[in-house]
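Q: What residues go here?
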C-alpha cells in the first residue's frame, strides 16, 4: 500500500509500532486495502464505510454481512494491520503503480489527460520490459484538500499494450468529471499482473491494431538501444508556452 501511494524517487517509511501502522492505514481509502475490490468498496461506501479506519471501526459481524464471512474477516484483520500472508523473496509483483504530482493544483483537464497518458506509457513500457500483462487499472486522484477518489476497472483481456491501457485510463479519468477540480496528483496502477506468456490475445482483422503493435515494438527497441524517454507520444509532453 505504501509503495502504491509513493511517487517515483520518493520513499514512505511506516514504523512497526501499532500507533504508526494505524496512523498510516486509517486515512487511506477503503479500496486501497488489499482484498477490497470495486464491488466491495461500493457496498461499503453505501453504508458510509469509506476509509480503512472506518473498516477497522466496523464490527466484524457487520463486515461479514456485507462482504461475506471470509472476506469480512480478511478486511477486519488487514484494516488493523494484521496480514498472515507469507513474504516470498523475489516474488513477482502483483501490481505496478506510478504517480504524477503537478507543480501546482491543476485545473486544466488537458493537463490531467496529458499526465495520464504519460503514466500509461511508462507503465506499458515497464510491463513489456518485465514480460508481464495487467488485468485491470486503478486510478487515484488526489485533490487540493488531500482527499482522494479511486476508480478501478478490469480490462477486456490481460495486456501491456499502451494504446489499450491508455484508452482505459482515459475512460477512468473522464468518468470522474474533473472539469472544475483542483488536482494535486494522479496515480495509476496496473493490477493483477501475470506473466505475458500465459495471456491470450484475441486476434482481430484490424490492420490498424497490428500496425500499432508493430510500432510499439519498434519504439521499445529504440528505448532499449538509447534511453528511456527518447521516444513517446507527443500528447504526453507539455506544450511550449
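A:
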Amino acid at each position: 500500500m505504501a509503495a502504491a501511494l509513493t511517487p517515483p524517487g520518493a520513499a514512505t517509511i511506516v514504523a512497526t509500532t501499532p500507533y504508526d501502522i494505524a496512523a498510516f492505514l486509517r486515512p487511506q481509502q477503503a479500496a486501497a486495502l488489499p482484498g477490497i475490490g470495486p464491488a466491495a468498496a461500493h457496498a461499503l461506501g453505501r453504508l458510509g464505510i469509506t476509509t480503512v479506519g472506518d473498516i477497522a471501526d466496523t464490527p466484524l459481524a457487520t463486515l461479514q454481512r456485507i462482504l461475506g464471512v471470509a472476506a469480512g474477516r480478511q478486511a477486519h484483520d488487514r484494516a488493523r494491520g494484521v496480514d498472515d500472508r507469507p513474504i516470498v523473496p523475489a516474488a513477482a509483483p502483483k501490481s505496478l503503480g506510478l504517480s504524477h504530482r503537478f507543480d501546482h493544483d491543476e485545473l486544466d483537464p488537458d493537463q490531467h489527460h496529458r499526465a495520464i497518458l504519460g503514466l500509461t506509457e511508462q507503465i506499458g513500457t515497464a510491463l513489456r520490459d518485465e514480460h508481464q500483462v495487467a488485468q485491470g487499472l486503478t486510478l487515484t486522484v488526489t485533490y487540493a484538500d488531500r482527499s482522494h477518489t479511486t476508480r478501478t476497472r478490469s480490462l477486456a483481456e490481460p495486456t501491456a499494450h499502451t494504446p489499450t491501457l491508455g484508452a482505459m485510463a482515459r475512460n477512468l479519468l473522464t468518468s470522474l468529471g474533473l472539469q472544475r477540480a483542483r488536482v494535486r496528483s494522479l496515480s495509476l496502477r496496473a493490477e493483477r499482473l501475470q506473466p505475458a506468456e500465459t495471456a491470450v490475445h484475441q486476434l482481430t482483422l484490424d490492420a490498424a491494431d497490428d500496425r500499432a503493435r508493430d510500432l510499439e515494438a519498434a519504439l521499445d527497441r529504440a528505448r532499449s538501444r538509447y534511453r528511456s524517454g527518447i521516444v513517446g507520444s507527443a500528447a504526453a509532453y507539455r506544450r511550449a508556452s
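A: Context that may help when evaluating the design: The chain has a mean pLDDT of 84. The beta strands are 96-106, 132-143, 148-159, 183-191, 194-195.
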